[in-house]
Amino acid sequence: MLNSLSGRFLMLTAAFVLLAEVLIFVPSVARSRVNYLELRLEAAQIASLAKLAADSLDEPVEQELLRNAGVYNVVLRRDEVRQLALSSPIPEPIHATYDLRDRSAATLIRDALATLADSQDRIIRVIGSPVQQGGELIEITLDQQPLRRAMIEDGLRVLALSAVITILTAALLFLAVRVLMVRPIARVVGHMRAYAEAPEDARRIIVPDASVTELREAEEALQSLQTQLTGALRQRARLAQLGSAVAKISHDLRNILASAQLFADRLEETEDPHVRRMGPKIVASLSRAISLCEATLAFGRVEEPPPRLTRVPLAAIVSEIVDGERLAAGESDISFSEDIPAGLTVRADGEQLYRVILNLVRNARQAIAASGKAGEIGLSAEEDDEAWWIFVADTGPGLPPKAREHLFQAFQGGASKGGTGLGLAIAAEIVRGHGGRLELRRSDAQGTEFAIRLPKENAQLAPLPPLEGEREADNTPGSPRGAEAAE
């Protein structure tokens, strides 16, 4: 009960109401004291006026007037003359004097608390202003204990009323919280539990119907989350089926490509210089295709390895990609530009970085070719203290709104008709595997620009190997001949 939302709200409400009543109690007791003393002053003034009207009174009558007024002595000041109107013996010396004519609230509260704290029999003097302009001032002496008892009685009444108000307020707030908050929250929790039992079942997605704005916003957010999760689970199932099929195809395709690679190796023996120049590129492409098939098979077994970080020259990767895409562009009016510092090396997996940049450049080439207009694809790079940046920009028609909305989601971010959107999804996943990010800088009628950020902090995990010899004699993993040697 106390650990529930309504229980804690009940306790907090009671505590705050009691605090408010305490803050009310102190001024109330001070006001009660002032009222009591003002009544005594008024009664004493009436008694003194009766004495003055009668010129002379018997001693018993005078004492009765003082008892009815609740005072020992009454002093009036009228017409600049101070006059003892009524008097009787005072049992002990006067303990304190209080002037009610010009007292601040703080002083009245202080005097009230002092009166409550003093349980001794005391005689006090009180000075005030007569009512109805009955003089300049009136002064009385009286016992403090009756005043203290009256203050305590008034205080108890205030506390009793406060307790009743607290109980009623807390009960009403408790019921309100139960109806307006706890029950709707319990309903949302129930929907979450039901959805957790079968998240693939779209019928279990919550339908927002709360009347409270905040709860409705929470239900709408939960509905959006459940809808996305259900869609992701369905897509995951489809991808699992697709992955199984692709793994089977990749197994046979790898064997075919391995045979093709053996034949391509013979191209290096020809005397034709053009063939000898293109032969290594064919071998490199076949090697990458074989590696990609092997990676696909590993992915199908959920064994995709993490990137093998080495220091790779970025200019060589970009140049190889541009050479291949120029051939693919054929007679199309598409130009390529490279602005890569000659000595720039990045910490990355060379083959995976090749796939990322190739996906971006190929998408740009296909977009420009589909537009039927001339265009340019530019690749540039730079570095700062925290990261390396690689930029791929084109002057194509830009991405359509649907593609931008689901840019890095497989089967949803395709920019061209019939496209699957797998290229960008794969590229983004590879960059995330490096600890970086792939982002869309701009996409409009003037073209599109992507940026690859590779953080440098990974470079501190291990000392950088020397650049010379990393691809020496083309026998290292990631190079065309290295892949061939690895076979």
From TrEMBL:
Alphabetical keyword list: Kinase, Membrane, Phosphoprotein, Transferase, Transmembrane, Transmembrane helix
- Quick check: keyword Cytoplasm in the entry? no
Protein biosynthesis found in the keyword field:
no
Native organism is Rubellimicrobium roseum
Tell me the segments the record calls region Disordered: 453-487
Q: What is this protein called?
A: histidine kinase
What SMART domains is this protein classified in? HATPase_c (SM00387), HisKA (SM00388)
Q: What GO cellular component term, any one, is given?
A: membrane
Compartments where found? Membrane
Q: Which SUPFAM superfamilies match?
A: ATPase domain of HSP90 chaperone/DNA topoisomerase II/histidine kinase, Homodimeric domain of signal transducing histidine kinase
InterPro entries per UniProt: HATPase_C_sf, HATPase_dom, His_kinase_dom, HisK_dim/P_dom, HisK_dim/P_sf, Sig_transdc_His_kin-like_C, TCS_sensor_his_kinase
Any one GO MF annotation of this record: phosphorelay sensor kinase activity
Q: Which reaction does it catalyse?
A: ATP + protein L-histidine = ADP + protein N-phospho-L-histidine
Q: Name one Pfam family in it.
A: HATPase_c
Every Histidine kinase domain range: 248-458
According to the record, the segments passing through the membrane are 6-30, 158-181
Give the chief site where it resides: membrane
Its Enzyme Commission number(s) read 2.7.13.3
